[in-house]
Amino acid sequence: MRSALSDEAFIKLFETKGPTYIAKAVGLARAAIYRRRNALEVVTNHSIKPPGSSRKPRDRADFSPADLPHRHHLDIANGVVICASDFHYWPAKKPSAGHRAVIWACKEFGPKAFIANGDVHDFPSISRWSPSSWADWEKRPSVQSEIEYSQERLYEIEQATPRGCKLVWPIGNHDERFEKVIAEHVPQLAKVEGIHLKDHYPNWIPCLSAWLNGSVVYKHEYAGGIHAIYNNVMKSGMSMFTGHLHALNLRRFSDYRGARWGGDCGMIADPYGPQFVHYTKDNPKDWAAGFMVHTYEDGQLRWPEIVHIVDENHAEFRGKLIKV
């Protein structure tokens, strides 16, 4: 389609004739037309609407990314995307095997984008959880030390990724604790530099969700429970990769519309690290450390791959042990 229509001609036809007209003219599905429209809106920073769209559209595909400022769009035709979640960085503890494996993967695959899919921080000192008498609650790190430690770790990721790699950060519920406490207790500080978490990480793109090629969504959480990744795909109608549950699972779903993926990206932190003692109360955990490597070819997601952390010094990928 791109060879048949220039971007200028595509935009003009979309706004005057609509997506159905273009789809029939070039012999493509309407979904492909909308993906190109979404990508052009990001590039031009202009809302491209079909004719007669002054009323609120009924089809969710008609919503413009320009109207959704907290949704970040990426257009990657060919290349690797690394999606890692739940870092829960803990100062005074050496980087986890998960973090070291991420550095290896960034150097090995040279990703076009790195998705830090929420909960870079833990922030136990501003948590709603009550301190446990067995959790050494006095030793919980300060907010300042957590941010400084996380800055160091994310800088290592920045250095390991190639120039031009998009660094995208869908916010996690633990990350939100930082601004939540400020907004609730000292709202007078609104607009002051430094009160927003993004102020401390200028090289990362903050968002609520990251949309890749208009067909894959990365966000920290959506549905909950043991059937979360199934419900994420069924309720959204999209391929969706989340964190939050720390389980490192992958499922493929198919129906008359085609195949979609649901994934839980696991965790970068050590599942039995000190971050989790104070609220899991030493309960058994159905958690697994690791992350995902996603390869896109011609704009389509190929079979997602998992990097699994085996022990403190090794990760497993494609059936081989990788020393980290």
How is the secondary structure organized here?
Elements: H1 7-16, H2 19-26, H3 30-44, E1 71-74, E2 79-84, H4 97-109, E3 113-116, H5 143-160, E4 166-170, H6 177-185, E5 205-207, E6 209-212, E7 216-218, H7 228-236, E8 239-242, E9 249-255, E10 258-264, H8 277-280, E11 290-297, E12 300-301, E13 305-311, E14 314-317, E15 320-323
Parallel strand pairs: 1-6, 2-3, 3-4, 4-5, 7-8, 8-10
Antiparallel strand pairs: 2-11, 6-7, 9-10, 11-12, 11-13, 13-14, 14-15
Characterise this structure.
With 324 residues, this protein is α/β, with parallel strands linked by helices. It has 2 domains: 7-68, no CATH class; 73-323, 4-Layer Sandwich (Purple Acid Phosphatase, chain A, domain 2), CATH 3.60.21.10. Helix content is 27%, strand content 22%. The chain is built from 8 helices and 15 strands. Strands 2, 3, 4, 5, 11, 12, 13, 14 and 15 form a 9-stranded mixed sheet that branches. The chain has a 6-stranded mixed sheet with strand order 1-6-7-8-10-9, with helices on one face. Strand 14 (314-317) and strand 15 form a beta hairpin. Helix 2 (19-26) crosses helix 3 (30-44) and helix 4 (97-109) packs parallel to helix 5. The termini are far apart. Residues 54-63 have low confidence and may be disordered.
